[in-house]
User: Fold this.
Amino acid sequence: MTTRPTRRLSALHLYTLLLTAWLILPIAVMILFGFNDVHGKQNFRWEGFTLKWYTHLLAKPDLTIAAINSLTIATLSTAMATALGTPLGLALARHKFRGRATTTAVLFLIIACPELVLGASLLSMFVTFNIPRGYPTILAAHTMVSIAFMTTTVRARAVTLDPSLEEAAEDLGATPWPRFRLITLPLVTPGILAGALLAFVLSIDDFVITNFTSGTTITLPLWIWASTRTGTPPQVNVLGTLIFAAATTLTLLTARRK
Amino acid sequence: MSPVRRRDALRLAGAALALSACGVKGRAASTDVASFWAGKRRTGRLSWANWPGYLEDDRATLTSFEKDTGIRVAYREAIQEMGPWFGKIRAPLAAGQSIGFDLMVMTNGIQLEQCRRLGYLAPLDLSRLPNFAAHAAPEFRNPSYDPGNAFTVPYESGITGIAYNTKYVDEEITSIAQLFSPKYRGRVGMMSDAQELGSFGLFSLGVDPETSRPPDWEKAAARLREQRDAGIVRKYYTQDYVDAVSKGDVWLTMAWSGDVYTLTSPDVKFVVPSEGGTLWTDNLCIPRTAVSPVDALTLMDWLYLPAHNAPLTEFVNYITPVAGVREIVRRDAARAAGRERDDLTRLGASPLVFPSPSDMARLRRYRRLSPDEQSRYLGVFEPIARGS
Amino acid sequence: MPFSRRLAPYLLVLPGGLWLAVFFVVPVAMMASLSLQTGNLIDGFRQTFHWQNYTDGLSTYGDAFVRSLWYGFLATILCLALAYPAAYWIAFRAGPRKSTYLLLLLIPYFVSFVLRTVAWKLVLTDNGPVLGPLRDHGIVPSDFHVLDTGTAVIAGLTYTYLPFMVLPIYVALERLDPRLIEAAHDLHAGRAATFARVVLPLSLPGVFAGVVMTFVPASSDYVNAEILGGPRNTMIGNVIQAQYFDDGAYPVASALSFTLMAILLAGIFLYARALGTRGILDTTAP
Assistant:
């Protein structure tokens, strides 16, 4: 009776490990081929170990520009979504107001809609109003999606808070701003951090919506997509590896703070 | 067809096109040229949209251009495909706004034709292109898609032919018919681009794509569908066939000459099929709304000096429109050493970069399409690669 | 003070709400409008209430539509089957290693999904590390291939969206009060019965969220079909994408996108009603 569950457990454990390995396999491939000493334009056959792609990371000017665009768009859209989505999440969590149901429905639609449809509808609008597409339109689109995720995480955190804390602060004579800064904000910060991390990761990896709103501006995923046609240079693997390392570190730090 | 007859044919075609050019609503009339360029001044800045891989990684050509002329160039690999590119620039061009670029590289084909017809391109002042006049190879002057080089000058050209992996294919591939052979079921790659695919369908019927008629298109499309439905086509490629044919996922595939040349795999061979191949050209052109058209024109002309063009060809490995580059490549090869010497020697000798007259004689252009024909042509060929 | 208190929620909502209105509500309305227009890129588009855009689009590309929903369905089922045991193990048995495993499952998200798909292509290629040895040892026939087939596309979709399934199921299981399981055991319910009567029903909201979060993006994906698929694996996403970008056929493309959105949203609502789950937001929130 005591041995059977253990055997069953280890089978599930083994299964989880295998599943994890499967998920990580292509990433291992990506990291490995960043060290591949290729000579032609094709990076698919192992040709020996080298570090030269790390030292020549910035040798492809357009790839560098694309990476910078991706980073700045992710940063800016995350900041904007934090500024706009946090109050929205708080309002939904603790206030009754007209349009509350509509706002909730819109947030649901944004999260539930395929990215393809979000991108297509934005393109439709830009085409209809003859708005030239480029950096600002990508930023606006990413911010829109990020607001939805930010609002959701902040709201989820804020509904669990005890309203009596704020009431106590009010009784003690705290005016709205200090009350918010000293009581509410610290309490919802984990929600904001989780939302910001999600927004950042979604933005920096976004391909579909960006493709529809980009015009002649190129971001990292767009450049990689284009390069799959002519041969993806190893620098792409290196950049992917670096972003991967940074994101993992960031997540570990955030997780620790929680 | 012998080279001599090809030259005659070219001359004839040139004359016919010069005649037909008169009918193009006079857009390229000399008054237009004069009025466009009147008052346009050099700004010392130039922004250039090109395809990825079409300039050295270190931008050496631009550095020497900047040194020669003092014009600073902002270069972007902003173009991946013609359809999306046209979709992006159409709105600003229609509204008379700048697209952010003074110079762009467009392939001859549907979108270039649209840009020409819609008056989105600046008419070229050929009198300011003396190097083009002096050094453009005859087969790249006055092309059928842009009579009299009214709006464009070629940047690089390439051939659409067949690439095959000799590790898997044990016979010699010489014809398009072999792409339809059941022997290679599941091992054939075709291109998804409607013009490329359509042209090969037409070649396979023995029809010259350039003079083909709608009934020919229907027949060609039926043939291509048959090929697809028989499971012969493994995949319709945009450009990623390069990987596939060198890895052996497909054994023979429609391919572009420059791609095959750049392949490190010596197993992959390129042929211009006996039925014919397609000669396409990527062209330099100036959007009408360019901020620095004079600077763009300066770059166009600068690139046509063989000494300036040779390093570019040595990197890009496509067919240059500038005469005399081959001699420079050979001279560079003689001066170089080691691996570089081998590379340059191979380049100077390559029929993919410097095609032989007999190969050239088999090449045709895409069908030039009026707006009505265009939707019909696309309606016939486009769904094939989409599986419908 | 009471006035500003009544006003406060509106001040909080206004900036973000306005942004969502301008970049989501208006665009969807514009897409709906564009889907009924006629014209082309060159002459521009005019509103003519041309409903044929819908019928034309569906009659030409109906097969791609059906294929997308089918691939999405298969990928979702596979994800569910693959994800549930892992989520279960992590939630109940991983102990202190819980967060490590969760992170490992999420890790693919830190790599551009285009790059991940390209890496898969490298793994699945005919003479690659998997198929090459299998063929050399005669385990699979010489003309067997995975790349450029529907199998590759479904496998790619499953891979891409698996974490979307694991997370919500894990969250639902994690919230489950272990005392409930103990109670079931005290009532002499066996392992299977406990699972079927207690664990499974209580994890259903997570399963619901996971299914929605997997099915929606999987059935509208086009990158997997483009990179891993062959000529008969075109999904509706590829068609819509090509119609927008290559053909400039905005009205038909809009009609197809709108149809896709309508089908998926209707599906979600029907599904939610059938399952009796209210509000996806409650179950998807971390």
In short: Residues 61-235 of chain C form a domain with the MetI-like fold fold (CATH 1.10.3720.10). DSSP finds twelve helices and two strands in chain C. Strands of chain C lie at 37-40, 44-47.
